[in-house]
Specification:
about 220 residues, alpha/beta, 2 domains, seven-stranded mixed sheet, elongated
């Protein structure tokens, strides 16, 4: 079993809770406005009724949007937890799994550190069950930003560069043998089985790396 350094989906679950709290506020505000509109109807103030109805429609729109965002966060958390458990089961203790790594502009879903080959696999986890080409450019942009920030952290902490393999992981993908390499950006995209094969196939980096020092730094934030 792999060595799990930190639990999965903490940030995603916090995001889900924040969105639920905002949705509650929207519901309460909409209820108050509903009382007001009933009052105005009694008063037969047509323009006031139209105005409040417009405001209510705005709140209804936001209720729908926030409900979808809450569901997205919930599914995202499940994907992160599922992949963490999958890696824990299928990787040896030489692999350290660090979930939910805090960086400057947010977080990295998962880092898999190979302490034998001395490299890092940066995983951006997506919950899609089917490949969606319309989202790829956004995913790659997100991955490259995380990769850039991770490289700066590695060099600051260790004073050296180590190989970083940047991957879009699709743990719920129907085709678990899915594999693709975006050569222009040097980002890979994998279903679970191909992810394991790729992790196993990378060459060894012979540089000596103090991984305990690195872990202490990224887990102290």
């Amino acid at each position: 079993m792999a060595k799990i350094i930190s639990p999965a989906a903490i940030s995603t679950r916090k995001l889900e809770i924040q969105r639920k709290n905002k949705l509650i506020i929207i519901y309460i505000t909409a209820f108050v406005l509903l009382i007001i509109i009933i009052f105005f109807i009694v008063k037969s103030n047509v323009w006031a009724v139209i105005f409040v109805a417009f405001v209510l429609s705005f709140f209804l729109y936001n209720i729908i949007i926030f409900s979808k965002k809450i569901n997205d966060a919930k599914i995202g958390a499940k994907a992160e937890k599922y992949l963490s458990d999958f890696l824990d089961t299928h990787l040896s203790p030489a692999y350290w799994v660090v979930n939910d790594v805090k960086i400057k502009y947010g977080n990295i879903d998962c880092l898999v550190i190979d302490t034998i080959k001395n490299c890092i696999f940066l995983l951006e986890i997506k919950s899609s069950k089917r490949f969606d080409s319309s989202k790829v450019s956004k995913w790659i942009k997100q991955c490259k930003l995380s990769e850039k920030l991770l490289k700066s952290i590695v060099f600051r902490v260790l004073g050296q560069e180590v190989p970083i393999f940047t991957i879009v992981s699709l743990p719920f993908l129907d085709n678990q043998d899915y594999s693709y390499h975006f050569e222009n950006s040097n980002v890979w995209m994998f279903g679970n089985r191909k992810l394991l094969e790729f992790i196993d196939s990378v060459p060894k980096n012979n540089s000596k790396v103090d991984w305990y020092k690195f872990i202490d730094d990224i887990c102290s934030k």
